[in-house]
Amino acid sequence: MEPVIFSPVGVVHSPHKELSGMPVQPPSAAGIIGEIEIFPEFSEGLKDIEGFSRLMIFYHLHKSAGPLLSATPFFDTVPHGVFASRIPRRPNPLGFSVVRLLSCDGTILKIADVDILDGTPVLDIKPYVPEFDAYPNESSGWFEGKLSGIETKRSDERFL
Amino acid sequence: MEPVIFSPVGVVHSPHKELSGMPVQPPSAAGIIGEIEIFPEFSEGLKDIEGFSRLMIFYHLHKSAGPLLSATPFFDTVPHGVFASRIPRRPNPLGFSVVRLLSCDGTILKIADVDILDGTPVLDIKPYVPEFDAYPNESSGWFEGKLSGIETKRSDERFL
Lengths: 160, 160
Known about the structure:
Order of helices and strands of chain A: EEEEEEEEEH
Strand content of chain A: 25-35%
Helix content of chain A: under 10%
Number of strands of chain A: 9
Strand order of the largest sheet of chain A: 2-3-8-7-4-9
Distance between the termini of chain A: 30 Å
Shape of chain A: globular
Oligomer: homodimer
Number of helices of chain A: 1
């Protein structure tokens, strides 16, 4: 099948300047503020976005080292397959975070719960719609029992 | 910023052969069965995936016509920005569905609630982890009050 070529539509500004020591998921980043700057040619795409309280951000893990098919994630001590984990070294380095939307001012989205590296290229934004996206009672596989302390969980150097 | 090149890691097999008349979101596709065939070179990436009851599928909307910055979505009668909607004609045609995982047999994932076109290239799979991904109480913006009848909602020809 043919490769797919995506072009960034914006960029993330965040306090996270290094891959090590970062929050590993949005619940590890509660209250951490950042911005998404949408490039001016896409500004029309933001119409009515301020009605949503959360957004799904799809981005290029642009500092990811090459792919791994399995690895030991931050939340465990044994390896799991890349498609059964959220490790950043993926066959296609596509990042995904569900963040809070605080405001939209022109082409600047102010967001919270930001676990994304500063300078990250944004590929798409979709509004979080609980009817489509929220499934609170699903099983978390190997994550079960491993998420205590998530609020302060930080990345280490294992994927650099 | 530089373009990003992604290569498919698998392909979706589903009963949906045409873009028109399809379920528009997984809740419109409850019980509809399909498969994801992961290409053999990525099989190691599936290790431990069977512990999860839902997966997030990231895919190329490979039959999408060119991008629109705003359009009238299936769920409304007035236009909204592409980043405030789930319309398929996006600046980067990246699809996202949260589906049920029924089984994993070798490189074949049997899935349910499938709203994805047959033959769709899969770019990534991540396990759905409610602690990271489920926010049932968020506001749905312009979708509020527009989702009655979602169970049987089907696409029409507006985006062809």
